[in-house]
Amino acid sequence: MRIDDFENEIDATILSRGQAYFEEGAVMELEQVRQGLYEATVAGSDDYIVEVEIRNGEVKALECDCPYDYGPVCKHEVAVLYAIREIWEESEEGENSKIPGIRKKGRGEDESMSALTSLVNSLSLEELRSFLLHELRGDGGLQLRLQAAFPSQPVAVGRDYYEKLVGRLVGRGKRGYYDRDETSNMAGRIDGLLDIAKAKIQSGDFQEAFDIATVLLNKGAALLSRCDEDDYSLCHCLYEASEILKQLLEANPPRRIRDAVLEYCLWRCKSHPALSEDWDGKLLDLAITLAESEEEVRRVIDLLESLGGNDWERRRVQLLEYDFLLSKCGEEAAESFMLSHLDNDEFCQRMFEQAMEEKDYARARQLAERGRRQSEEKGKYGFVSPWLVRLRSVAKLTGESEEYLRLSRELLVEHLGKVGDYFPELKAAIPTTQWPAYLEALAKDLERRGATDSLAEIYCREALWEPLFNLLKRRVVCGFWAYEQRFPTEYRPRIADLYAVQVLEMLESFAEKRIYTDACELIRRIKALGEGNLAQQIIAELRVKYKRRRLLMEELDQLEKGTDESV
Predict the structure, then answer these.
(1) Minimal CA–CA distance to 198: which of 144, 158, 234?
(2) ∠ at Cα 334 (332, 339), nearest 5°?
(3) Virtual CA dihedral for 46, 47, 51, 56, nearest 10 degrees?
(4) Rounded mean pLDDT of the chain?
(5) What is the enclosing helix (H) or strand (E) of 83?
(6) Mean pLDDT confidence for 102-126
(7) Residue 168's pLDDT band (boundaries 50, 70, 90)?
(8) Can you tell me the distance from the alpha carbon of 46 to that of 61, in angstroms, rounded to the nearest whole number?
(9) At what angle do helices 140-149 and 125-138 cross, to 10 degrees?
(10) Cα–Cα distance between 525 and 522 in angstroms, integer?
(11) Which InterPro entries does the record match to this protein (predicted)?
(12) What would the pLDDT profile of 428-480 be if each residue is shown by its tens digit?
């Protein structure tokens, strides 16, 4: 992207946040390390170092040491881009401007700022305090900036304060719901509150950090249903709020805060049993991690038993419950839970592997049959073939050769298995005298399944060139492309003739650049098959018949130019 219009290349939410950081003076230092390479310090919830490389107006590299990992550009990098561009615009030299060692934050003290500075200096402390308090009453954003600027100052506010503050920050939406821009702007305002919560953790104000995070989770999640488009920026804020609870616990807060976090996680997950959002999953993980006493373990188990919406979510929760039981209640309890939930494919697979290790092949077969049946009943046909492979491995170990071959054929035909995995075994097992009839029946089954690629590969392995030619001829001509060089040389003129017919039919029916490109590719393949004279005849015919098609003539020119260069 270019420095003069980078706005067109960056997400609107990140762009607005970065612009706000720049305008509020967050770019504290900006240094030109060498020509084209810049380094800056940007103030946020912490001070972050940003490096920018620009060559001929093109932004070649951006790097920031902040933890943001939701996109290619963060708000701190955007703020620095604005700062660099402003310096270039103010200087007559543009990109060649020499940025002196350290440039202090903001836009500098222009005449307007000088006048404001004089005005502030002329006011009394009481006048300034009165003005600030008046402005704070109706400006939630200003309240956030004030608290972020002085996070260590004791401000006695309770949960009700943050409830009201978030209410003012989110508003109601212009038409009773939030469009994409409104959602992005709302997320930008909430982001400032998240910075305050992080600062509260650092200053030891754990209760306020807890209040901010939980208020945002409650109110923010409720807002998603009123967003015209679920903008990812709001979802990101809610996930960050759940991360704040994790950071709060890592700061070793008092026991009452730890208990409050556990209670909140249990309540929140029970109120949203589907766990359809990432932050709800994060809260469930926190509850599982926090549970220590017998009562807490029991409550988490009760919670896990009640969770899960669709089949995938229930499966995920059951895996969590198994791991939780294993860590808190021991192997026997976890094993009992697994046995009672074999409808979970993962548990069924684990029990199968255990039976195979114990060489209990009867039990292994029973579990594999159950897994196959469950997958078919649930319509998860992609999971059927792995169970067939497991059944096949049991048949091999138990010496059931007929069952082994039956399963190999089923995997090849019904589940479109790889020819190389199953065909050689089938051929080796079938007596030579029976092989032609077996192969004919196998070919019919593969055609019935539409497994043309598998059948074509088998014909190649068996050197059945005429059946292969007839099979591919029934498909689109491009079906020959993967096999044309494998045919004996006597088949190449016949393939080239098919390509020639296809070229003429394509251009008779269509007149667009994509078709011209495909037609010329077919002509190249005719040449590669050793039929150069036929290719030249086609080109000559096309130049006469379609001489008014400029794009086709250009494609033919390129084709012949490439031929000349190769010669």
Answers:
(1) 144
(2) 95
(3) 100
(4) 85
(5) helix 75-90
(6) 65
(7) confident
(8) 22
(9) 130
(10) 5
(11) Znf_SWIM
(12) 999 999 999 999 999 999 999 988 899 999 999 999 999 999 998 887 656 78
pLDDT tops 60 at residue 230: no
Distances (CA, A) of 545 to 159, 496, 497, 541, 561: 81, 21, 19, 6, 20
pTM beyond 0.85? no
Q: Which amino acid is at 54?
A: I
Per-domain boundaries in the chain: 6-106, 157-341, 342-399, 464-567
Q: Using only C-alpha atoms, what is the Rg of the chain?
A: 35
69 CA to centre of own chain:
12
Q: What share of the chain is helix, strand, coil (3-state, %, to 5)?
A: 70, 5, 25
Of the candidates 224, 296, 208, 295, the residue with the CA atom closest to the CA atom of residue 257:
208
The whole-angstrom distance between residue 8's C-alpha and the CA centroid of its chain comes to 22
For residues 459 and 468, the answer to whether their CB atoms sit within 8 Å is yes
Cα distance between residue 405 and residue 461, in whole Å: 19
In sequence order, the 6+-apart residues with CB closer than 8 A to the CB of 552 are: 507, 516, 519, 542, 546
Tokens of 455: 């059948």
The C-alpha atoms of residue 316 and residue 273 are separated, in whole angstroms, by 13
Q: Torsion over CA of 59, 60, 65 and 70, rounded to 10 degrees?
A: 80
Classify residue 522 by burial, with Cβ atoms within 10 Å: 0-12, 13-18, 19+.
buried
Q: Where are the alpha helices (DSSP H) in 203-330?
A: 206-223, 232-250, 255-271, 278-290, 294-306, 311-328
C-beta atoms surrounding 207 within 10 Å: 17
pLDDT value for 321: 93
Q: Residue 29: helix, strand or coil by DSSP?
A: strand
Phi and psi at 36, nearest 5°, equal 90, -10
Summarize pLDDT for 178-202 with one digit per residue, the tens: 777 777 777 877 888 888 899 889 9
Contact by Cβ (8 Å): 453, 483: no
Q: Let me know how many helices (H) and strands (E) the chain has, helices first.
A: 26, 4
Q: What span, in angstroms and rounded, lies between the C-alpha atoms of 471 and 494? A: 14
| Closest among 202, 188, 162 to 46, alpha carbons compared | 202
